[in-house]
Specification:
single chain, seven-stranded mixed β-sheet, 27% helix
């Protein structure tokens, strides 16, 4: 699709300021395609967000170092069909954050953001995050594998915002933080560390049904439209609190309709050792 000539960085900058995000700390989830074409593509989004906000966080998830579980470490209720690992032949790739890739599903904007000067990345073999701006290093430091989305939890504690550019709650990792607030245990997966050893890494579950929480959370969101792109922004502390409240009241609301081991075991509370 050819870029729409009248949509670009300046237009998005204006909308972000109208939403009250100037000078704020934000977690960004975005679909570049949702703009229907944008001059300068992902660079326009990155420059607009960095120009308006003091701290920016984006997902940089990577599963290249995924490894089969040891035979003696296969917990129950773990949202995992262990038969998937039978006959595993993929070479083990140690996770080195300075050379790690990023999943294509993170989108073009997150991929470009990861290479932007001044961006720092957390050393987590599953839920790695990229941060830029004031306090970026502190957000991503010490992201242990026994946690999931620690940088996002930190941003929430700082009073940050979530910014959804053309995506809905099914792309909003903050809902996983809400799940953990209800006492749901993150899933256990395995990855190869820098030293070549396979060890546990905590991972979030399925997000396909998270949009079902939107009616209960909608009053928290500010909304704007830029071309065909719907833009939503909400304060992270209030969103996580509200989503956790809804999930406590209706534990199955975040469960997708398809047969899904992760959703089934998440509703039951997560893995048991």
């Amino acid at each position: 699709m050819e870029p729409v000539a009248h949509l670009g960085e300046a237009d998005l900058s204006r909308v972000l300021r109208q939403l009250g995000l100037a000078g704020e700390r934000v977690c960004v989830h975005t679909s570049l395609r949702s703009f229907g074409g944008l001059e300068s593509g992902p660079d326009a989004v990155i420059q607009a967000v960095l120009g308006a906000c003091r701290t920016v966080l984006m997902p940089a998830f990577c599963w290249d170092s995924n490894a089969p579980p040891p035979p003696d470490d296969r917990p129950t209720q773990n949202g995992c069909d262990y038969a998937f690992y039978d006959g595993w032949s993929k070479p083990l790739l140690p996770f080195r954050v300075e050379a790690a890739g990023i999943q294509p599903s993170m989108g073009a904007v997150s991929r470009r953001f990861l290479t932007h000067p001044g961006t720092e990345r957390s050393d987590h073999a599953w839920h790695s995050w990229a941060a830029w701006g004031e306090g970026a290093g502190a957000l991503v430091a010490g992201h242990g594998w026994e946690t999931t989305n620690l940088p996002l939890e930190r941003l929430t504690a700082m009073g940050g915002w979530v910014l959804l550019l053309g995506v809905d709650l099914s792309s909003c990792t903050a809902i996983h933080c809400a799940e953990e607030r209800t006492g749901q245990r993150p899933f256990i997966r395995w990855a190869t560390g820098r030293d070549g050893r396979v060890r546990r890494v905590r991972a979030a579950g399925c997000a396909k049904a998270f949009q079902q929480l939107f009616p209960s959370c909608q009053p928290l969101f500010r909304e704007a439209v830029l071309g065909p792109c719907r833009i939503l922004a909400a304060p992270l502390p209030a969103l996580v609190d509200q989503a956790a409240h809804v999930l406590r009241e209706q534990p199955g609301l975040g469960r997708c309709l398809s047969p899904c081991l992760r959703c089934r075991d998440a509703v039951l509370g997560g893995p048991r050792d």
